[in-house]
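Need a sequence for this fold. Nothing fancy.
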């Protein structure tokens, strides 16, 4: 792909296409919402993706999207993502973690009535994955092997890819880039320490990147020339009610911890933007960053941690449809703002 020169779907003239970066949060099965967002953006065809950063499920969506773009532009990305999520649903179809009839009646995705989920939840609190999963079996490894040709991804030049993981021993963030990314790097970004053994890469051990960057914004700022960042957010920031039960408290702690790094980066961006507006910092060393977000806070607020392990096809389709709807609404309202201004009030949303 020659950036900014080829026609888009439907014969769009190059001048009508705008470049943007994607930053994709992680959240297990909730990543199907991100799938819907990307599918709608690719279908629209007016945005050209420069860089993608992702963490956990966001890292998987980012990797599959980058591979699909390299293989077949927008339609390639749509096909690759659809194939990946079908594989995820297929791998989970015969697994023990399934929503019960009562779960389906009372929630689109929670597994509150699943005895298997509660047993597994208790087991993960009492035993480590080194004990209950000594063979370190991860069904997502086979899914990724079928979904992505990593050798082809390494040769891709159409998009810059950044995946975030947490170095267990140093406590530092690690960002992997396109040419080095393999299956282990993607799995490292999605390695929840209560479910999977740490992923070893070149003598270092990694856990889920959500503890340090969910998603990381700084690689998109420093390593691309594109000012617009579209953050696909799947972890709610605000809670409607005070959590009082043990499960509610656990869920809220999970949301807070996996949003904390994003909140910090947004505050830093806001601070620098104000200094630029006041003339205290000047281009070209400093440039304004335009922030855009797509989320589904109302729907995600009704879902608890159990739903992040629910890969039932009906639930994934539900999230996919919401993602497409939100992306369509954002495109209708804000496409003209891309390249001109932020469409997210950072101070109101993140501070």
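Here you go.
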């Amino acid at each position: 792909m020659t950036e900014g020169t080829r026609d888009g779907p439907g014969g769009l003239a190059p001048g009508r296409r705008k470049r943007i970066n994607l930053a994709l949060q992680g959240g297990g099965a909730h990543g199907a919402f991100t799938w819907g967002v990307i599918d709608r953006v690719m279908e629209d065809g007016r945005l050209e993706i420069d860089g993608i950063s992702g963490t956990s499920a966001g890292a998987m969506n980012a990797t599959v999207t980058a591979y699909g773009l390299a293989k077949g532009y927008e339609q390639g990305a749509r096909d690759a993502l659809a194939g990946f999520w079908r594989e995820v649903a297929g791998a989970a179809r015969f697994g023990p973690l399934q929503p019960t009839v009562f779960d389906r009646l009372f929630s689109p995705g929670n597994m509150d009535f699943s005895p298997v989920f509660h047993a597994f939840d208790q087991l993960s609190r009492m035993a480590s994955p080194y004990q209950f999963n000594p063979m370190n079996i991860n069904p997502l490894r086979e899914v990724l092997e079928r979904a992505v040709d990593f050798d082809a991804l390494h040769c891709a030049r159409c998009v810059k890819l950044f995946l975030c993981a947490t170095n267990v021993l140093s406590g530092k963030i690690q960002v992997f880039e396109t040419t080095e990314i393999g299956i282990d790097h993607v799995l490292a970004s999605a390695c929840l320490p209560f479910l999977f053994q740490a992923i070893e890469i070149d003598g270092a051990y990694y856990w889920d990147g959500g503890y340090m960057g969910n998603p990381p914004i700084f690689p998109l700022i420093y390593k691309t020339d594109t000012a617009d960042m579209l953050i696909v957010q799947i972890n709610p920031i605000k809670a409607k009610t005070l959590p009082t039960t043990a499960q509610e408290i656990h869920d809220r702690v999970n949301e807070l911890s996996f949003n904390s790094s994003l909140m910090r980066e947004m505050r830093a961006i806001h601070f620098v933007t104000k200094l630029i507006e006041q003339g205290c910092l000047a281009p070209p060393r400093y440039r304004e960053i335009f922030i855009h977000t797509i989320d589904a806070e109302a729907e995600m607020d009704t879902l608890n941690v159990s739903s992040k392990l629910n890969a039932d096809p009906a639930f994934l389709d539900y999230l996919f449809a919401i993602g497409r709807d939100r992306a369509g609404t954002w495109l209708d309202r804000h496409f003209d703002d891309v390249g001109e201004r932020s469409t997210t009030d950072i101070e109101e949303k993140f501070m």
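For context: The mean pLDDT is 92.
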